[in-house]
Amino acid sequence: MSGERRTPQSLPVLPEAPADPGRRSFMRTAAAGAAVAALSGCGLEDFFRKSFRELSKGDVQKVLASLERKHSAKYGRAVTVSGAPAQPGVEFGYGLDLSRCVGCRRCVYACVKENNQSRKNPQIHWIRVLEMDKARGVDLAHAEVYYEADQVPRPGHFYMPVQCQQCRNPPCVKVCPVQATWKEPDGIVVVDYDWCIGCRCCMSACPYGARHFNWAEPTLPKEELNPVTHYLGNRPRPKGVVEKCTFCIQRTRAGRYPACVEVCPVGARKFGNLLDPESEIRRVMDTKRVFVFKEELATHPQFYYFYAT
Amino acid sequence: MSGILGFLRGCARLVARGNRAYYAWLGVLAAAILIGLLAYAHQFRTGLIATNMRDQVSWAFYVGNFTFLVGVAAAAVLLVIPAYVYEWEPIKEVVILGELLAVSAITMCLLFILVDMGRPDRFLHILPLLGSPNWPHSMLTWDALVLNGYLALNLTVVVHILYKGYRGEHYNRKLIVPLVLASIPGAVSIHTVTAFLYNGMAARPFWNASILAPRFIASAFCSGPAVMIILFQILRKTTRIAVKDEAIFKVAELMAYAMFVNLFLLGAEVFKEYYSATEHLLYTQYLWSGIGPHRALVPFAWLALACSVSAFLLFLVPRTRRNFVTLNAGCVLIWAGVYIEKGMGLVIPGMTPDTLGEIYEYRPTATEWAIAAGIFGVGFLVFTVLVKVAVPIMTGTFQAPDRAADHPSPGKSAAVA
Questions:
Q1: pLDDT given for residue B412 in this prediction
Q2: In angstroms, what is the C-alpha Rg of chain A?
Q3: Does A145 lie at the interface with B, CB-CB under 8 angstroms?
Q4: Is A55 within 8 Å of chain B by CB?
Q5: For residue A299, is it left (φ>0), alpha (ψ between -120 and 50) or beta?
Q6: I need a surface site. Which of A109, A139, A273, B190 has the fewest CB within 10 A?
Q7: Does A25 fall in a domain?
Q8: Full-model pTM
Q9: What average pLDDT does this structure show over B379-406?
Q10: Do A199 and B356 touch (CB under 8 A)?
Q11: Is residue B11 included in any domain, yes or no?
Q12: Over 90: is that where the pLDDT of A27 sits?
């Protein structure tokens, strides 16, 4: 497929993250990890910790290492938890070609796999693909999320995938009572899962249904875990907190495409650095007519829809 | 110090003693609380999946109850304004009961928020210094601030007046009058901020109407006093507290005005939605006529309207307002009407359909009902205990031993506000 194994030329490439020393010897540290997990389980360690943004650099390293031990012990394999910060001169932008999208929902499941979402009871999808009637245009009252996948694309219909729009004016960030969610300098709206109190104000505020709540302990089979994680992204989440699309922060900050871009069989998804004139997303914006979803709400998304043909 | 200990011992004795009806009442409350605790233990273990809330309808029954009870708490002001601003005598005796009601209502509000949290163990995160409150941006931070402030204010007033009454002394006017005056904007602010919590969300057109806060205040001025009226009658039958008919009828008259404003604002909103008929009409439609087969709220919406309109008529006509049978029926109707309107009728249509147009029909689970019953049990228990202590102080039968000898009967005028 043309959409796979593309090199994201326009993306700044970071060196590979240094190998975690705990990775090789994780079996030896598993016991210690279990102890840490037990401590976190009873809440004392988490209870008195500061929020991620207020931690000193040294404390960040300690927290990341502790999470790596905890997750490695729980899932029985080496899990890395990166804390890679935003790179200067990068502001991510996303383009989605509605004339190409066929509604196959491969993006939905690639996202679930990449980002360690709960598989069932509840099943969490960060991307929702809406089937819409061509005659009505973008009309949410008549949109259908639960259409039959083997019949796509249905005649007379078009498909509109919706995920976090990474608003420049994010209503979800404004309403959070504890500053557990914020917009990073590279434009990604993130959640500190260890600080979220689960009040779900952000879910009420989001016009795009992009935020999802862990109503129960997430079900993530050990063998299906993606062990390459980021603190603000796809690391395993506890129950009772909100999660959302982060443009695959663990990939994009390391110079890769988001999983949904990579998997799209028709190349409907474009991604890149808005500040780089040579980037793919800038080519879209220079040559196509783009629009943002629910522009009347002045959320100013960094996610652009367009019709290429 | 021994005075305070003696006071507390006396309070404990008062609370422990009572007739058979009192013990039966305590038994009912204890059962409700126990059921609530068991249900909460289940929810705490399994997560909020024990409720029927989902991503599409992420706030529901708990938040609806919270909203309704904020209104009940705010309603104390309806009694405080005439008592203190206009020096209207008959009502002064019962102001303290309004404040006791506010204390128990806020207790329930805080509990409903606690059970709605995904991570209640992290409640410290909203506190200054220990946590990182998003102030002034987040309305929930404001709500926590004003609710706790209002609770502290009412507790201070109540405890001071009651303790002074117990000591047979007059309360400190320099302390109490400013606090009571401050509780008037305090009551308005708790309900306004709660309205703003919904109001500020552009993603939810059903809430994003500037009429929302005035509607909240208007409906609160109906529901809170409805409780008070029934309560006054119970108290004057079972205790030596004398509440004049005149005071009750005055409160009923104020409720008629408040209900008129409430219904008028509702009409204004319904007109705007149906006449302009934009895509935002959908939420109003879901409430009043349903969308296709999705009609879960429709019977409740019309029931609430029927209750509110008939209660309004009962309170409007002086003859039915002054007849205790119709008056009490009106109070119950108002309660039912506002409870439905401010609870499910506000929260659920705000969330249905969701922001991407999906319709998820929410109905509370047994767990949610049980937890709500438990919280109401706690609220009623708090109120019962407070009244059990307050009434003997107000009637002068519960007094410090040394004072009782000096001042055989200080009377109500010194003991109550």
A1: 42
A2: 20
A3: yes
A4: no
A5: alpha
A6: A139
A7: no
A8: 0.91
A9: 85
A10: no
A11: no
A12: no
Q: Of A76, A108, A131, which one is at a domain's C-terminal end?
A: A76
A244 and A285 both lie in a single domain: yes
- Whether residues A185 and A61 share a domain: the answer is no
Q: For position B71, which CATH number holds?
A: 1.20.1630.10
Q: Is the pLDDT of residue B294 over 70?
A: yes
Structure tokens of B144? Answer: 């926590």
Question: pLDDT digit string (tens) for B77-89?
Answer: 667 666 666 666 6
Helices (H), chain A: 21-24, 26-42, 44-47, 57-75, 106-114, 171-175, 201-205, 249-252, 259-263, 280-287
Under an 8 A CB cutoff, do A208 and B355 touch? Answer: yes
Query: If you measure CA to CA, which chain A residue comes closest to B126?
Result: A178
Q: What is the mean pLDDT of chain A?
A: 89
CB atoms A130 and B356 under 8 Å:
yes
Q: End-to-end CA distance of chain B: give it in Å, rounded.
A: 25
The answer to whether residue A83 sits within a structural domain is no
Is residue B157 one of the residues assigned to a domain?
yes
Mutate to test the interface with B, among A160, A182, A194, A197 (most CBs of B within 10 A): A197
State which residues form the domain around A53.
30-76
Asked if A55 and A172 sit in the same domain, the reply is: no
A–B CB contacts, 8 A cutoff, strictly below: 151
- The verdict on residue B92 lying in a domain is yes
Instruction: Say yes or no: A169 contacts chain B, CB-CB below 8 A.
Output: no
Rounded mean pLDDT of A158-180?
97
- Dist CA A49 CA B130 (whole Å): 10
> Can you tell me the distance from the alpha carbon of B239 to that of B60, in angstroms, rounded to the nearest whole number?
39
Neighbours of B275 (CB within 10 A): 8
For the segment A275-294, the average pLDDT, to the nearest whole number, is: 96
* CB contacts, 8 Å: A212 with chain B: 55
Q: What is the mean predicted confidence (pLDDT) over A87-107?
A: 97
The reported pLDDT for the residue numbered B324 is 95
Cβ-contact A292, A298 below 8 angstroms? no
* Most confident by average pLDDT, A145-149, B126-130, B259-263, B391-395: B259-263
- Domain contains A215: yes
| CA distance to A12, A15, A109, per residue, from A7 (Å) | 11, 15, 21
Residue A128, helix vs strand vs coil: strand
Report the 10 Å Cβ neighbour count for B36: 23
Q: Is the pLDDT of residue B336 over 70?
A: yes
Give the best residue of A127, A142, A165, A199 to mutate against chain B (max B CB count within 10 A): A199
Check whether residue A62 and residue A97 sit in a common domain.
no
Q: Inspect the interface and report whether the beta carbons of B59 and A204 lie closer than 8 Å.
A: yes
A37 and A186: one domain? no
Q: What is the mean predicted confidence (pLDDT) over A37-48?
A: 57
User: Is B355's CB within 8 Å of A121's CB?
Assistant: no
* Cβ-defined contact of A239 to B201 (cutoff 8 Å): no
Domain boundary among A49, A76, A103: A76
With respect to residue A38, please indicate whether it lies within any of the assigned structural domains.
yes
Chain A residues with CB-CB distance to B54 below 8 A = 122, 215
Same domain for A60 and A98, yes or no, is: no
% chain A with pLDDT above 90: 80
Decide if pLDDT at A241 tops 60: yes
B116 and B62 Cβ atoms separated by less than 8 Å = yes
Tell me the residue type at A157: H
